[in-house]
Amino acid sequence: MKRMRKCPSCGAYTMGETHCGVKTKPAHPPPYNINDRYAKYRRAEKGI
Ligand SMILES: [Zn+2]
Question: Fewest CB within a 10 Å sphere: which of 27, 29, 36, 45?
């Protein structure tokens, strides 16, 4: 199975080694605790 790669320049997912003339990076899965930063905002609103 080929791994997806991501272009650091435009953010597109690709199978290619290069995109937009730059080397692509292995695509990482999104952070599992992506809601955490919203929780921080909520805490900031409350002033805690
Ligand atoms: Zn690109």
Answer: 29
